[in-house]
Design a protein that fits this description.
Elements: H1 8-13, H2 15-24, H3 29-38, H4 40-61, E1 64-68, E2 72-78, E3 82-90, H5 100-109, E4 115-123, H6 128-137, E5 141-143, H7 146-155
Antiparallel strand pairs: 1-2, 1-5, 2-3, 3-4
Helix pairs in contact: 3-4
C-alpha cells in the first residue's frame, strides 16, 4: 500500500465508486460478499488498491496546503517541480493563532517585529504525491491557496 487505507466513513461516502472499481475487475456484489467471507486477505488487498487509487486522484490535483500550529502557519504551493513555502511565525508564546482572538492578533500585528515571515523552496523528490501525502499526514490541509496568495502578494515574491 502506497498511502493509507480510507476510513470506514470515506468508504461509505465512496460506495458507488467502489462498486464501479469492483465492476472494472468483473467482481459482482455477490462475488464481493463471497470474497470478504472466504478470502479476507483478497478483500483487504482490494480495499488497499482502491484507497491508493483514490489518494492518487486527490493528490494529483493538490496545489496548496496549509498547516497551523499555535505560533506558526506553513503555507505550501506545490507544482510539478517544487514545493514553495511561506512560513509565518509569531514571536509571542502567549498568542495562539489557532484561536479567533489569536488570529485577529496576527492580522493586527502582521507587519511588526512580533511576526516573522519567511520563504523557502524545495525541489520535489521522484514522487510528488508521496511528498504531498507526507505533509498531509503531518497535519496539513488541502486548500485553494487564498492565504498563500495573499502572503505571496504581500511579499511580492513571484
Amino acid at each position: 500500500m502506497k498511502y493509507s487505507r480510507l476510513t470506514k466513513e470515506q468508504f461509505e461516502e465512496m460506495h458507488e465508486e467502489f462498486i464501479n472499481f469492483l465492476a472494472t475487475q468483473s467482481i459482482t456484489g455477490e462475488e464481493w460478499e463471497t470474497i470478504k467471507k472466504d478470502k479476507p486477505e483478497v478483500a483487504e488487498a482490494e480495499l488497499d488498491v482502491f484507497s491508493d487509487l483514490v489518494w492518487e486522484g486527490v493528490l494529483n490535483k493538490v496545489e496548496y496546503l496549509e498547516h497551523y500550529s499555535k505560533q506558526q502557519i506553513f503555507l505550501f504551493k506545490i507544482d510539478q517541480v517544487q514545493i514553495s513555502l511561506i512560513g509565518v511565525k509569531v514571536n509571542n508564546n502567549v498568542i495562539d493563532i489557532t484561536t479567533p482572538e489569536g488570529y485577529q492578533w496576527l492580522q493586527e500585528n502582521l507587519k511588526t517585529d512580533a511576526v516573522d515571515i519567511y520563504t523557502s523552496n524545495k525541489v520535489l523528490k521522484e514522487d510528488r504525491n508521496k511528498d504531498i501525502f507526507a505533509l498531509i499526514q503531518q497535519g496539513s490541509n488541502i486548500t485553494k491557496g487564498e492565504l498563500y496568495n495573499y502572503f505571496n502578494e504581500l511579499l511580492a515574491l513571484d
